[in-house]
Design a protein that fits this description.
Helices cover about 30% and strands about 20% of the residues. It has about 210 residues and is an alpha+beta fold. It is globular.
Amino acid sequence: MATEEPLIRYATEEDVPTILTLIQELATYEKASSSVIATTSSLLATLSFPISSSSSSTSSPTSSTSITPPKFTPGYAKTLLIFPPTSSPSCPPTPSPPCAGLALFFPNYSTWRSAPGIYLEDLYIKPEHRGKGYGTRLLRRLARECVDIGGQRLEWSVLKWNQPSLAFYEGLGAKRLEEWVGCRVEGEELGRMAGGGDGREEERED
């Protein structure tokens, strides 16, 4: 059915090649393309997808109607995809428009608030679809998902040099967490930390 509104839906297993392409494009934009080691196989093994008939669940980005959440396969993160309208007053109908962008996210938790939340790992809109409000629609959809699970925070990270994105997010009401510094352990350091004993040696050195 032709629509004049963008379509947001959960990604299915069949969308994984598209997800990988968008991840790679985002990494290129962030000047970190060499850091991407994800593959279609690893994404299939670690992402969560809607089950059976609910895999085609769609959502109007402007609708506030409550719907029954679909059930998902085991996985660590979910993905929302946004697609352009299939028709418009100035263009003929397009049966299957290509994906315009994604939001990949997973749940987190606040001890101070004793409440769940959502962490947005990746938000990406393809260059030819920017300026159409698609990023705003995805963020609003995620905000609704957060509210629906009783969450109190929607969080994400932004590169300091990415001033256009920072200005965009602040325009939507996001606040910079200037007092916090992100920390990360990965690769060989993670392996050494995991195999480093119970920490008593470090305590004696103090």
